[in-house]
Give the backbone structure.
Amino acid sequence: MGFRVFATCNIGDEALEILRQRGYELEIYPQADPPGKAVILKKVREGIDGLITTLRDPIDAEVFEAGKGTLKVVAQMAVGFDNINRADANRYGVPFTNTADVLTEATAEFAFFLMGAVARKLWPSERLVRENRWGAWHPFLPFLGDEVTGKTAAVIGTGRIGMGMIKKCTGFDMNILCYDPVFENEEFAGHIQEVMDMRHRYGLQKQATSIRYVRFGEALARGDFVSVHVPLLRAGESPTPTYHLFNDTTLRQMKPTAYLINTSRGPVVDEAALARAIKEHWIAGAALDVFEKEPLPADSPLRDAEIEDRCRIFHHFASGTKETRLSVDPNVGMAGRCVQALMDLLEGNYEGDRAKMPYVVNKEAF
Ligand code: GLV
């Protein structure tokens, strides 16, 4: 169809092949590292119709200005889009899309696994074995972990991924405290309560458990695991910004036995405060998949050897399954959804009505 598209990275050969087969003229940035703003600006100025981005690419007024009159869509391969300036996109009337839904379960299960990884000390245990320091079996030496089953999970943000996390916690007989600054999904909570009651009635879990919405302070004060599932919103972007939601003050409100789990966005947590919180035992530990600066800088306080056993760190990997990242089915994979979103816009699906296109984020602009 002759549409010109620049992808800031290879989002998956099979998905890109769909575009090639339809006659798109495709240029893919060849390196694994992101191209940087200057390269993006150059490509956009050259008159591309569509830009495929990931969460590493800064997209703002400068980019939209460069693409004035030509750039018709920014298709982001991620559910989060804090790298895209929404107000600027709206001002320039450029729709942008994301890949919600398809990564919900992968991300939620990763958050769930992080609870076990940090609380059951999987890393210290494996290291003991690998370094040949495994002494005789002993009832409590060299260390013990904290059990996950039956504990209280405080789920901060009950959108798609938060709800996915809650479903998984339910299978581990956990009590659930929900906090969401925007929408309290009482219908979903009611359904989970019914499942909990049924599991208890049939003897599938020993203790009766409950789920309820609470204020942020109560979630912090009572959660054994506090798992973060909010978008990154900076001051001015929302009446309820989430930047540094976890800071010196709020981390001190958590129990000294509690763990913080973050699979949302790094800047939701003040990392310097978190490193202090772990080091000074305000909390038991943390497991993080996202960071204020990615990749995590060599001098990050989170790398402090003193907190290593209680601080698990991963490479922004929560959605990183083969199915979720690469499937070309737009109902299964991020790659498939990303190219479908791009095609919807460039090929004028849904009678060209951008407000009707399911993957467009900034519908308010149309
Ligand atoms: C990953 O962090 C995403 O937003 O998809």
